[in-house]
Fold each of these.
Amino acid sequence: MNVRRLIITVVIVLLLGTLFTAGFHSLAAAQKASKTASNEKNVNELSPEMVGERANELLSGINDSIASVKRYDKEMAGASAEDRLVLQLQIYQMRIRIIDDIHQLADALLELEKTGSQPELREQVEDILARVTPGLWFHIDRFRGEINKIRARRIEAKAEERFAVENEVANFTRRLDTFYEKSLAHITKMEQIGMDVKEARENFIQLLYDRADELSGRLELALVRIDALETQLKEIPDDTNVFMLLVTAKKGLDTNTAGMDVILELMETLELDTAVYRAQLLTATRDISSGLLGTGMAINLLGTTLKKVAGWLVDSGPGYLLKLLLFVGILFVFRFAKRVVRRGLEKAIDASDLNLSQLARRMIISTASNLVMLFGILVALSQLGISLGPLLAGLGVAGFVIGFALQDTLGNFAAGMMILLYRPYDMGDLIDVGDVFGKVDKMSLVSTSLLTLDNQLFVVPNSKIWGDVIKNVTAQDTRRVDMVFGISYSDDIPKAESILEDILKSHDKVLDTPESMVRLHTLGASSVDFVVRPWVKVDDYWDVYWDVTRTVKLRFDEEGVSIPFPQRDVHVYNQNLLAGEAT
């Protein structure tokens, strides 16, 4: 319950602080704009005499403000902590007022010089502007030092105290940003009245770059810190200290992004390159308008990128182009070498006495040629500067992981190697494996593709083939055709036997050796059956089977030999007649 109350309280404080800050900035901006417009109107509309009086009033006001600042500085020594904060704010406001009055004095000088030379007033104004410039640098360094001291206190403070310290950092950061803005306005005013601002501009640009680099580092640190705290909060959602630290870190990120935005706007006013800083600011804020739409960051990034690409092309382009040409050339050479190796292996295997199957032949040629191409790719990659050691090591680790994950595939691979070694079938063989009957179309180390007699394609894993019975119908050169023909019980058996033998002898595709067989085989229920078994070449099997079957039917019809069909005698008994005979 205490944790929930604390969280609700912190959220309410953050909301009120945000609303108050936004309202304060809006009111301050409106007052500033109104005051500036009023002052410009007063100076522009006054007569020369009145402008001169206004200049005297401004000089008198500047002197009074300087005296007040000195008095407040003396009071700071013995003031309490609360009074010191009040005095610091008053001194800050007084110094800003002094700078504004000095700039209005410069405007009055320009108005008076329209009617005539004002050497005394110009000397005074230039002297004041020149003396203010190093003072601005001094106060910028002082504010940065004060902010660093506060940050040191924040590190030592407890988690629940750090948010208050971070608010103090934010207040001093806004004052520091105001001095950066006043510095640019001051240099601009010096330039308007004709003073030499080269040294002042260079010093201010260096201050801007120093501040941008500092904020860049703080943004990176803030993002890392926020990510770490969010991870901790997910693990321990009820940790109050982590929650407070996360709120403080996000407050610090907002402070630094606001400061970076101010600095970058000043740098862009001076036409300095801010693309890198804008990209980082865009990453930190996730706000497209702060980087792309508001300042034309996309154009800057595009221009910078094009410059870098052009520089890279000039410096490194020729070398990389040569490497690329060498890479392509090596691949082309090894591709040619792959073809040469393939053709050479084909001729060598054909000329050798090795009794290799077509499957083994294709596998050897394909593996060797692919290894040549793989070696060529590795050589080409080495020419691009890619280290082959880590690559090969990575491939080895990947191969181990993949091999462990694909155990079934490795089983198929091993079965494929056994099939190649023992050669139970070859390309074009008609086989019956894995409940599939068809012709071997192609084979890899993983699977075998079969085309059935009706032209269906089946891909059977090698492990299923090698682990089962393999029936190779076309493994031998010759094959016996087994046929059965039946005649009626009333037909002449020697005549039928003579007809069958004559048919086999007259067929040109029936082999003489081994000798064909015609034998009376069985006495069936409806017929007397002969087995007819001629030997033929494997390719002639179905031609002989179909021709002999057709010829037998025709010859039996011519010779009056009947081919019976199954029949059964049915005897009908009259029950009444049987009963009468019984009596």
Amino acid sequence: MAARATAFARRYASTLLAVTVVAAGTLVVFLHQRAYAPFFTDDGFISLRYAARLLEGKGLTWNDGERVEGYSDLLWVLLCAVPGLFGGSLLTGARVIGMLCTAATFGALIALVRPSRPVQWLGAALAIGMLGASDSVAVWSMGGLESPLVGALVSWGIVAALAAVRSGSRQATLGAAGCFGLVCWARVDGALWPVAAVLGLGLGFRKQAWRLGLTIAGTALVFVVLQLVFRLAYYHDYLPNTAYAKVALTDERLKAGIEHVSKSLFPLAASWLALVSCGVYGLRRERLRGATVLHLVLAATWTAYVVRIGGDIFPAWRVLLYVVVLAASLVACTLSDDLRSPIAPAALRWALALVTLTAVGSHFNPMNWAKGEVWQWDGQVVGKALARMFKDARPLVAVDAAGTIPYYSRFPALDMLGLTDRYLAHHRPARMGSGFMGHELGDASYYLERAPDIICIGVPPCQHAAKFPAQEQLLARKDFKSSYAPLRFEASSNTRTLKALLWVRRTGRIGIRTTPTSVVVPSYFLTTPEGAVARLGPRETIDANLPALARAKVERIDLSAGSWRLEALAAAGSARFTLTSRSRVVAAGDARKPLDFTVAEAVSIDIEVVVPAGSSFTTGGLALHRGPWTAEGARRAAAKEEQP
């Protein structure tokens, strides 16, 4: 038995050591993530909503009955759906997939070095250490978007391409083509990677790489065409909706892109320094020149693209993460050569300095606000609360942040910033490209035409002033103010309770319900005063709680002529009703008792509920019913029955 174990260990020593190094690097990233937990970007929940609806048999759609490509990472969406096939959490699954992709990138660095001596293993470990020390890697391995997937595909594409050039292996050629083909599905702009790879291979290896270059280019073209055919057939468009919502090649965006990259020079100093120093070293050595050119062309092409599109709006240098990965990959290549030479001690000191610089730069990073970006979890609480409160009505919810509330509520959703809305994406403002990327679309008239039942302004819990022009215009319109009321809801989870200010439409799925003989006012329409709140009661009913001295008013209730009775449903506490029409008191009385009154003609009344000092008032809503509730009403009803 011992002999077999020894033979097994000798045969698979390199594999076991590689697994150990990758596992150690992944553990470092996992521990590093604790500094930024529980970050998960809101846009990641957009991808998860598409994945969830796909699993429900509703296709890659945002809402029922419409098809909009509101994601930019098809392959990531499909991968995130896989855990759901086995009943797993999509959120946890996305995090696990992100970490697996990071681990795969670490594996690519080892495969790139192909270490045969212990000191070379140290070189691979140092390259992995650069990534493990990077905030960008830690944040986006758990951030919920496709960044780690693209990093893994590009890394293995480089490994396979270099192996194919060196050996002419058909398997390596197909591997490189497959990786660079798949990256076209991982990002909308993923086709840039195979283009840059073909260019880098051609410049670095010249005639040696022409067949490989053609294979990569042809495979990438097949992937691009297949997705285009799918997009045209399924979404009836040539570009994804996100491209219309974000891309604008203006001078303002160019300046923003230059500023974005320039601000990264210190936080990502180790990566930029590694690219420059390793680039100079590699270009001077024939055996490293081809690999160095490939890395530099990939990094330069992507950086130029980032500059042109205007940089990025996410924390921790999301789109420059690939530069960090390429820098570590080039460091691995360089160390694989340095550690065979007499200058090995100097190379190790230099590599350790890069790892240290990566760690230091990451922690002095003004563009990494991931630790403080936790409002997504407010969205989780609000979304789940709305799902419980309105599970039967399924209201249309309009949001600025299109991730968490739509994902957790599972309700139809209107994305007011247009990432998942075709109309807004195809009706861009005249000054598109001069404002905040991804937040420039909007149309107040369109919002009102869609008539959402609930509107959340700003990020959850929606207690924010309007930040974008279309929302400001919406809140200023008279027809909006007459159709919507700002109401306060309490949303609770197992550990947290918060308040959300939501604009609710007076009519519609969850609005005031009116018939010729009755009017039902849901409890939450009484939560306009400060301190009042609507919450889910113990019997899964929505109750409004009004504190002492609260004055809640429900306006413009249309009643026909006749006798009416007003009741507070499931009332507790003390309050007083006052009904007015054109500033004239129609009736008044104790809110704990039915209030009967008669109107001689059709009128519009306002109902005011006033809570006295030292008390509070809780109710499940207000109900008005027409009938012979008064003596006069009974007389009129009897007279009507006697008529032939």
Amino acid sequence: MVPQGDPADARVLLGVDVGGTFTDAVLVVDGLLHTAKVPTTPEDQSLGVLDAVEAALNAAGLPSDRVGAFAHGMTVATNALLEGDHARTAFVATEGFVDVIELGRQARASLYRLCRTRPAPIAPPSRRFAAPERVTPAGVRRPLPAAAAAALAEEVAAVAPEAVAVCLLHSYADPTHERLLGAALREALPGVHVSLSHDVVGTFREYERAATTEVDAALSPLLADYLDRLAARADAAGLPAPDIMQSSGGLTDLPTAAAHAALTVLSGPAGGAAAAALLSARCDEPDLLCFDMGGTSCDVCVVEGGAVRETAAREVAGRPLALPMVDIHTVGAGGGSIAWRDPGGALRVGPRSAGARPGPACYGRGGTEPTVTDANLVLGRLDPAAGLAGGVRLDPNAARAAVGALAATLDLDVEACAAGIVRVADAEMVRALRVMTVERGVDPRDFALLAFGGAGPLHACAIAEELGIRRVLVPRTSGVLSALGLAAADHRRDRARTVLLRGDAITAEVLAADGDGGPPDADEPGPAAAPRTTAAYDVRYRGQSHELTVTGVPPDPAALRAAFEALHAERYGYAEPEGELEVVTIRERHAVPGPYVTLGGAPAAGEDDTPAGPAVLARPETTVWVPAGWHGTTDATGTLVLEHQP
């Protein structure tokens, strides 16, 4: 905890995370934390955000004008992509390549399900347009006259799009034609969002670049509308304009996020990943398996060597996004996940959720279907007298009625059905953690398990036992840890550029990033921290079609080769010392480390800081279930460390 000072001089930090069921807020005031949890407002998430902020300010006894920084993570772009709710989008590509997204790659969506297909392109054939131009990696082959660009813009305007995506061949190397088309489109379609691929991605591989640009165009008007409402409400409440969490785990300013929604598709889960890295550093736990279980879903990520595992591209809702992202795997297993009987008579849980409204049956808001939360209440792992955060009172009779109705269809008693619901939900989360570890050659027994989210600590020990993990960490602020991660997150700007360097062309000068290349100091307080620039390199042997990303090396060709060959040998079992290298893409990250924040401090008076199972521990915004065979201690950061003794 930072030293105490005059509260009037403290810089107040605010983080707000929107989940499917609850919206969490954390205020950091001179090293002290004030938290709030309120129901999410699906019809307009900004309403719930301001409700959470008001509750946190009231808890702290502070006026809104004391807030110096406001960081926000949300699910607007994620939900829109998953639900197919997007703007009416047109797509412009080089003549002969307008169907690149529909053609995709020859890899099937599912190896054994021949009827399964990938999502259809957002822009149908009637809204795809050909640009009469051609650029190669070596330069312009067929010029695009200004008159032709203007005529094409008029054709696009005739279909009345709400957004336009432009992806021309090799614009990562020469964006001149894309810029010309962008200017023509903005003149012909004032107020319509235009996404240019070299602004969004900047790397080669046309299919992934085109698909990412199309998603960016389709989601940006929706996200911009939400952020405009949020900014207006924040301003009216006396709050600063929010910075927005990107999928990469770093913050960006509101105008950048509004202009490029594709950067925020994993905005919500990325806040939890930022918090996991923070806790890893403070608790001296460099290797963590992290699972964030909220009301709707469970997000899983891995911290190795103190850094959250990242990826340069991934698929979301079946659509490729060629952007840097925290490597997160999500399953539909949350406290509000609905339990049901499938046609074969098996007990299933999720992915359908009771959401915020009506919520689980035990919330007393009209829900009647059994959920994981109802099952935990039936099993005595939640205290009905204590209730839940956000003012939710628990109704055990409603929970038993909901679980009992399902139990009758399965020929089980109520307790057995509740235990089965919890076991099935645990199995889903174990599967997600195995996807991130065992399926990638990582032994989960070498890691500690970090559990957070409102429901995570209820399931952590059982999941750890299934994976052979002996240590479980439950932060003091685990119920709102993602919001705390937002308040402490770095500000980042990522830039990727395809260079296609080979042999002697790989020099220190072209490898150098715009900065000193040193790693940011995660523990240095924000105001004193200097911006840092780091670089990573996508490298392959000549003749290969895919690259390995090399990180943590100076811009030196010999060091790059040594690191690449070590990584290649680790991944594939061999290296080629005489093979010619190709540096395909240089990825630069410019980061300003976030401010120092505490993790929550010592336990409150009367709390059990050395529990032994079986025990139910009430914590702020969450409940911890300690099974038999587990015991715990509380460290200096307020983190509960549970250990298993068979």
Amino acid sequence: MIRPSAKCVVVCLVAVFLGMLAGCASGPPIGNSIVQIAPSSALIAPGQSIQFEAIVNIPNASPLFQWEVNAVVGGSPSTGTITSAGIYTAPATAPAQLMQIGIRKQQGTSTITVYDPSHPAPGSVTSTQNPLVASYSIAIPAGASVYVKFGKDTTYGLSTSSVPAPSTGGTATVLVAGMLSSTTYHMQAVIQLPNGSQLMDSDQTFVTGAIPASVLPSITTQFTGVDTPSPGVELLSLIPNPTPNLLNAVATDLAGNVIWYYNLPAGAYPFPIKLLPNGHMLVVTGGSVNDIREIDLAGNIIHQITAQQVLASVADIPSFQNATWDGFNHDILLLPNGHLILLASIAFTMNNQPGIPDGTPVEGNALIDWDVQQGAAVWTWSTFDHMDLSYAPYGINDWTHGNAVIYSPDDGNLIFSMRNQNWIAKINYQDGKGDGTILWRFGPNGDFTLPNGQAPIEWNYGQHFPTVQSPNSSGVFSLMFFNNGNNRLVDSNNDICSSPGVVDCYSSVPILQLNEYDKTATVLWENVLSSSYSICCGDALVLPNGNVEFDVAYDIYTPNVSYIEEVTKTQSPELVWKMNVQGQLAYRGFRIPSLYPGQVWTTYAQQNMRKVPTH
């Protein structure tokens, strides 16, 4: 394939036509016209093909060249062949020497190495800026991929995701994470060749670094013996409360051992942190720093979004003019198209609003569809445009307090949790084409009704972290969330919990069936945490084994201790596993299958690697 410079396209085509008329179209060009051959080097497997192209810099150069391998036009069976179109095919057996791809009577060559499966070059393991993360590098041919098995002995036990080779072959690097500090690990690369065969690297060892005890979170766990915990690791977004200067973006095994962390700047905390499908982490930083970071497992920043970038992008949008920016917080959503939904707080000073004294600040929320490639906002939504200020169950200072947003794939809309409205709302987003209308509001004084006996006590109050629990996300579907229970109304008289003579406030974890057609809802399952009342934060998930996990972040009955529980999803839920976090607020804490998309780290494998304490 020939890629002439833009200025010579026309004259080159004329030259081709004239050459064909003269009967010499296959003849060599005149003079040295090659700037470079691309790619400049490649590592390919025996029998594999790769396309080369020549880039010319002389306007009247003919684009018809005679490709060579080691100075032989067309190549040979022992060194590989190359067509007149620049397609090189390696020999079936890897030759000992390197091959030079060139063009007859032209300058510039490209180097080809044919990968020898019988004598692969060993990989190497080095440390990274994170003492718990190793960098495993190994050369693999184009079209191949590699993953790493690792463990405390040569039975390994855990695996990373696969990493593809560079497009022209070469060194692939796998970041290996999920290890204890100050421990020797064995690891081995597994190479998947383009023909489907596998190769194993020799065993490598790596000694993880130490973590100062002074920065380790105070975490303990309990296995009750009821059922087996669902596989995976815990990903924690911790906030100093009251202990500062501890690691706060961490992953632990089910024994509570820290196996990965991201060291945020002093005074910053994850608000929250999420695992991305590409194996990176997405972090909203709260505290002293407020930005959005995509990081790899070693902690390298791959992409960053600052408040200044976003503010510049929305400066001309009326909804944001004269607003005070109070930062990214509480959640972030990756969309199927690669965009991000940013959740931010914005405030306005009210004047000439009925019932609100002039000069009163009101803080609400904005949702911003951020096109990462363009670095621009392509759709926005504001509570000030779509909601009534007269409805403020918790006052207008912190009017809405949005804390979670999820995507509804069935209709392309967004489901948004606003704890200070006691509402979960579906917003007309339609994959960026919607007008932002609120389609429904679920919660007290919203658009749905509950059966007699379930309202008002079963409504959501100060809720967090809604998730869809059915295959569909519209029509008739199931929704789960952590119901904090703030100011829960407990009877038909609308008595507020913990009032004199009224039941104490409590949190719960319900799964409800919502019917969008007739706006009815009913409780399908609920874990009533009658002795727990978490006034903020938290989350809830159904785990792959069918159990339910939830984060009780700020229980007034356990000061300075957050706890995460896995329970059976039965009529009378039983405790399977519990994690206590002392001195930090577990804003979010939930199970992920592993630190690598597509990999599930079983409890059994982790227990083989670690001493699992019992309590």
